[in-house]
Write a structure and sequence with these properties.
Transcription Regulator spoIIAA; globular
């Protein structure tokens, strides 16, 4: 189960905690949509994500591409080891672009 907490600001941060899998799609979309209202970018903080699978990764990729096309790009930071390993394996950077990971080297 994925839990989200939103820290407001000019670039609001959505803190993610728990597991990212198929069941998290609605939770993640709703949190990002709420954070994106009036924002120029939305930051996703992955520090407390303990598990992610290909479904959770797919949701992140689709959401990243959708938000970029709508003019409110996502930025990902603090990738937990679980997230970094899966993102590396699935070549997420190639799918969403380097700009999504401003402070990460994948």
């Amino acid at each position: 189960m994925l839990r989200t907490t939103i820290a407001p600001g000019p670039a609001p941060t959505v803190f993610l905690a728990g597991e990212m899998d198929l069941d998290c799609a609605d939770t993640l979309r709703e949190a990002v949509a709420e954070a994106a209202r009036g924002a120029q970018t939305v930051v996703l903080d992955f520090a407390d994500v303990k598990f992610i699978d290909s479904s959770g990764t797919g949701i992140f990729v689709r959401l990243s591409l959708d938000m970029k096309s709508q003019g409110t790009p996502l930025a990902a930071r603090n990738l937990s080891p679980a997230v970094k390993g899966v993102f590396d394996m699935l070549r997420v950077r190639e799918l969403v672009g380097d700009d999504v990971f401003p402070d990460q080297s994948l």
